[in-house]
Amino acid sequence: FLSSCRPGMYQLDIVLKKGNNLAIRDRGGTSDPYVKFKIAGKEIFRSKTIHKNLNPVWDEKVSLLVESLREPLYVKVFDYDFGLQDDFMGSAYLHLESLEHQRTLDVTLDLKDPHYPNHDLGSLELAVTLIPKEGDFREATMLMRRSWKRSSKVITALCVWVCVFVTLQYQSLRLSDVHRKAQLWRGIVSIRLIEARHLQPMDANGLSDPYVKFRMGDQKYRSKTIPKTLNPQWREQFDFHLYDEQGGFIDITIWDKDVGKKDDFMGRCQVDLSVLSKECTHRLDLPLEEGEGTLVLLVTLTASAAVSIADLSVNILDDPHERKEILHRYSLLRSFHNIKDVGLVQVKVIRAEGLMAADVTGKSDPTDGFVSAYSTYAYKKGLWWYSDCIRSWGSKVTRRVYSAGYCQTDGCHVPLPQIQNGERKAYALKSKELTGPTKGVIFLEIDVIYNVVKAGMRTLIPIEQKYIEDEPRVSKQLLLQNFNRVRRCIMLLINVGCYINSCFEWESPQRSICAFLLFVLVVWNFELYMVPLVLLMLLAWNYILIALGKDTRHGDVVSSDSERKGFMNKLYAIQDVCISVQNALDEVASCGERIKNTFNWTVPFLSWLSIVALCAATLAVYFIPLRYIVLAWGVNKFTKKLRDPYSIDNNELLDFLSRVPSDIQVVGIPYNIHS
């Protein structure tokens, strides 16, 4: 019984030193080897890849907790092939029972192929140390063995005592977990991730691509990745909700981002919240355990009024006294009290209709939940109630409907600013990724009370990343959707440009005359305050259109195509997208390279010509007010078609850049500044 309770009996420290005369797997006569360690069929370690080397040197260390020495360590070597299946280079077994305790042994493993045991595939050199883990469980085991010799009654009593103790501990944990779930939060822990110093290099170039993971209970965050540095600076903020008044621990780990393989562990540290005072910002310089370097954090604990399940079992906004207190809490007079507490949202789930069948019986067992820092809700009289604090105005309430036992989820987004208090409204469900429609609707009644000043201030703060995201995957549907979104934005700009160009071309004389007079009037009387004034007028114009029932906000949104397309049609669509992206990247890259080549004297004649043009422009801007220059340019553009009806419209700057070669075109041109 005691041996099954132990998390680990031995600590196995392994240093993967190097390989000798490994097998050739690439056409160039080399290989790109990496090593995997497995115990009981589970992969526990993967080394970095050493490219183009048959005698690689890793010098990587790994520490493992081993429960039983009967399971050997299975070592496998592979050749890394980008985009293809990696080639097998040999394997070997390390029998842990044969290792001497508390002593570092140099071990050489001869690699073999089970299908061709006579082939020589080289060897690996390891340094192995096996350390028994001493503790209370081993002493208890010895005590039981001695007691067995004395009396079987003592053994029975001890086993009963251990079982009772474990049961009480389990019930205590379950009870504390119930209390924790019954209490939503008691405070907020704000962590500002500032920087890290002197981290351990994990890549072959002597640098790392570090990112940080935070965890406190079920709450998780992940920072952005800072590439190629040992002293990264993040300047990010993450907020945890505190359930225990005594504080708790926040586990922090640092990882090195690797593409195509498992990320490397760089170190860990821990923050003990019980020793930090509330309503005060603490600067913490935390040294990393199992790694190198220091992590710099700013930690702030903010107290908050506790909200419990008992409060959620009643619609608190229907109680006049409670509603009055909530309105006072978020009144304008308390705008600068607890800035992060913006408001309160209460959701009542009425019913759902037309849900997708998720079970084999053609039915579903729907449950309801919120994707939030909390998943607590109350059920009363056939309805679900949910209450939550708003801490980021402009965000969305996310509803998900689950099918019990099948893990199929559908959901919907409800933007907070669009909620009408007390209105019962049907929301169409979307897919798991909330990107496309699916079957079913959900009926909600939502009430929102918030402070306008706090909401405005919170909109200027970056939205924090709530969950650790999965690794991105290539999706043909998502690629087509994003391409169409970008194309619609570009087409909008093109249409605006065509409209302005039609004024220059005098396609409509009345419109061109009005545009010319407006241009002269604005340029002659232009002041800086007119820029926000124009944006204000645009907002007012759209508001008037919406008020008059001429809402064009969703006019450009393309509905999802429900028609099933054949494989060839999908293939052609993907091909068109790839060609368009390829051409767009070529245009952008060529433009940037032409500008660069203008200044690095790739074509000396064009560089001298640009010098003359820049000198003329400098003198013109210095002696002539910018207002007159813009006015002269506009008059020239408007009258060009009148002066020469058959002239071809062009852009002089783009015409000049088209004469400068890009980096692809410059191959073969001799570089001679005096030519």
Automatic annotation (TrEMBL):
Which residue windows are transmembrane per the record? Answer: 516-544, 605-633
Annotated GO biological processes are:
regulation of neurotransmitter secretion
Q: Name one Pfam family in it.
A: C2
Cellular compartments per GO CC: synaptic vesicle membrane
UniProt keyword terms in alphabetical order:
Calcium, Membrane, Metal-binding, Transmembrane, Transmembrane helix
MF (Gene Ontology): calcium ion binding
SUPFAM superfamilies reported in the protein's UniProt record: C2 domain (Calcium/lipid-binding domain, CaLB)
Per the UniProt entry, the signal peptide is none
Q: Which domain of life is it from?
A: Eukaryota
| Cross-referenced CDD domains | C2A_MCTP_PRT, C2B_MCTP_PRT
Q: Which family does it belong to?
A: Belongs to the MCTP family.
Q: Report what the protein is called.
A: Multiple C2 domains, transmembrane 1a
Native source organism of the sequence: Cyprinus carpio (Common carp)
